[in-house]
């Protein structure tokens, strides 16, 4: 009966004090009992109940009432409450105080490591994780596995910030070693397995891992730790690498449900929505990222403004797009993508010389930027500098990497290669198409034909490529082939008047007059006011009638 009575008292205490603190938060009268032991008990009890906001207030009250005491448990509980409330900067300072009192508490060092990682203070985070492992003291509810895992995550993040592949590789290899140590201690730890697998897929190091198995490992890890925002984020990034943007978007949404103001997640979501053509939603995500918590990971506000510009371009709001791109380059004058988006905005505004100048700036910063080289080609074409445009398209075709896990440029992409993302195919096809159009402008029909055939082969449902190929073939008097190209274009976009009229003209060239009359009749059924179709039908009908009425020539007698 005694134990039951104690439980009832504790339960009532929890209800009373939880309610008292909440009443205080809602404007009720503050409870000012000056006994530090009382508040210490509430601090520890409420923390055990995962009422971290209430626990934090009680911890701070107890410490304030007895500041001269060591208060190890209180500083530990205060630090952990701040950590759970994601107030990471305060948690780091609080853990510093606790670790001065308990320098061998490995779990505290690990939590400080995690907090520093979330604050993107990666060097300090690694030092704290290393201290946790070298101290090897009190692990409480944790274990060395947690420290090895977060050491690996931090090294991986540092690798992503390196300006060279060699520098990144060094950090990535150390991260793999950390994940391996975690898995030695806990072979079934899904967190370490997911991180290790993702990195090995990036390094193309085998070991039974590729990006697909990394995604599956994140799925398992997220099922076990559904509130770990990093798991959903890393799964989304892995899905992006495979071109599965719809699935990546779902993972970002799961992560944002946990941490809705996380700037990195919001800007990544914005970028995915831009690729999917959902520009209004992308714009909202980018605006939320800029107004978010300011934690950018390997991104920065310049990237957010650049993606904002891209969304505005998609919405046809070119002045706003230009302003956003200018914000990006003001924040980071060496940000090539920002300069490129300035160029695109100016191109749409028909400010061509300005567009060319800022796009050249983008290329000077990143000489192998295929996107910037492509856009320079479009601007040069608009300026009727077609030979220069072709040179820029050629550079872009050679630079664009359609398969980062196994580098392959548009120059070497064969139509039968299957494992290529759709957006990469679209990019390559657009490059070859624009190059072909520039050759057409220069009346270089064989070169135009070659480029446009490549565009159509890479992306068989690319209307513009088939249409332009029809023009190139007809201009080279390859009329049967031109007729087939136009027919393919017509199947992709039925009943477009210019295509139907072009087919009619070719049928006339081929003297297929009955087919031409039938086609002109079909055009007039769709567009009765088409003067070109009416004139074409009259012209062909007259020729066909004259040939039909003309008596056949008598057979010629061969000379003896």
Write the layout of secondary structure elements.
Layout: H1 2-25, H2 36-48, H3 52-65, H4 72-84, H5 88-101, H6 106-118, H7 122-135, H8 144-160, H9 165-185, H10 190-203, H11 211-224, H12 229-241, H13 245-258, H14 263-275, H15 279-290, H16 301-314, H17 318-331, H18 336-348, H19 352-365, H20 370-382, H21 386-399, H22 422-441, H23 445-458, H24 463-475, H25 479-492, H26 497-509, H27 513-526, H28 531-549
Helix pairs in contact: 2-3, 2-4, 3-4, 4-5, 5-6, 6-7, 6-8, 7-8, 8-9, 8-10, 9-10, 10-11, 11-12, 12-13, 13-14, 14-15, 14-16, 15-16, 16-17, 16-18, 17-18, 18-19, 18-20, 19-20, 20-21, 20-22, 21-22, 22-23, 22-24, 23-24, 24-25, 25-26, 26-27, 26-28, 27-28
Structure description:
- 74% of the residues lie in helices and 0% in strands.
- The longest helix has 24 residues.
- It is built from 28 helices and no strands.
- The protein is an all-alpha fold.
- Helix 4 runs antiparallel to helix 5 and helix 17 packs antiparallel against helix 18.
- The chain is elongated.
């Amino acid at each position: 009966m005694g134990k039951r009575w104690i439980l009832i008292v504790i339960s009532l205490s929890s209800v009373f004090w939880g309610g008292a603190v909440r009443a205080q938060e809602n404007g009720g009268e503050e409870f000012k009992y000056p006994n530090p032991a009382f508040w210490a008990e509430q601090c520890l009890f409420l923390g055990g109940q995962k009422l971290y906001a209430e626990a934090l207030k009680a911890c701070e009250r107890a410490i304030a009432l007895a500041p001269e005491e060591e208060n190890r448990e209180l500083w530990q509980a205060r630090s952990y409450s701040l950590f759970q409330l994601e107030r990471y900067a305060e948690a780091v300072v609080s853990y510093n105080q606790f670790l001065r009192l308990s320098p061998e508490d490995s779990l505290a060092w690990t939590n400080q490591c995690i907090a520093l990682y979330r604050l993107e203070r990666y060097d300090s985070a690694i030092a704290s994780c290393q201290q946790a492992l070298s101290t090897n003291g009190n692990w409480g509810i944790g274990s060395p596995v947690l420290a090895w895992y977060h050491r690996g995550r931090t090294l991986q993040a540092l690798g992503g910030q390196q300006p060279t592949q060699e520098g990144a590789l060094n950090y990535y290899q150390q991260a793999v070693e950390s994940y391996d140590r975690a898995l030695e201690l806990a072979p079934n730890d899904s967190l370490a397995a997911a991180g290790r697998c993702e990195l090995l897929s990036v390094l193309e190091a085998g070991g039974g891992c590729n990006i697909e198995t990394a995604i599956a490992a994140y799925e398992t890890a997220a099922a076990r730790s559904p509130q770990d925002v990093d798991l959903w984020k890393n799964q989304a990034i892995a899905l992006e690498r495979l071109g599965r943007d719809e699935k990546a978007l779902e993972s970002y949404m799961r992560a944002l449900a946990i941490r809705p103001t996380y700037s990195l997640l919001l800007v990544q979501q914005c970028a995915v929505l831009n690729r999917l053509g959902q520009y209004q939603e992308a714009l909202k995500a980018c605006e939320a990222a800029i107004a978010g918590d300011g934690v950018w990971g390997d991104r920065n506000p310049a990237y957010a403004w650049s993606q904002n510009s891209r969304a505005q371009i998609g919405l046809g709001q070119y002045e706003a797009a230009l302003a956003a791109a200018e914000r990006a380059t003001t924040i980071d004058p060496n940000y090539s993508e920002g300069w490129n988006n300035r160029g695109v905005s100016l191109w749409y505004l028909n400010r061509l010389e300005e567009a060319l100048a800022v796009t050249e700036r983008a290329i000077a910063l990143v000489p192998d930027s295929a996107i910037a080289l492509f856009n320079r080609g479009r601007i040069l074409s608009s300026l009727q500098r077609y030979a220069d445009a072709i040179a820029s398209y050629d550079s872009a075709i050679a630079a664009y990497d359609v398969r980062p896990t196994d580098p392959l440029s548009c120059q070497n992409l064969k139509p039968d290669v299957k494992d290529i993302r759709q957006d990469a195919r679209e990019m390559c096809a657009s490059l070859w198409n624009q190059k072909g159009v520039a050759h057409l402008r220069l009346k270089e029909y064989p070169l135009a034909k070659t480029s446009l055939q490549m565009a159509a082969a890479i992306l068989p449902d690319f209307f513009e490529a088939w249409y332009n190929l029809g023009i190139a073939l007809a201009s080279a008097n390859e009329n049967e082939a031109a007729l087939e190209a136009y027919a393919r274009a017509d199947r992709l976009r039925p009943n477009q008047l210019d295509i139907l009229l072009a087919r009619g003209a070719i049928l006339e060239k081929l003297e297929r007059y009955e087919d031409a009359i039938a086609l002109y009749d079909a055009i007039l059924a769709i567009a009765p006011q088409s003067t070109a179709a009416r004139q074409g039908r009259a012209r062909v009908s007259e020729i066909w009638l004259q040939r039909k009425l003309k008596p056949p020539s008598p057979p010629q007698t061969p000379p003896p």
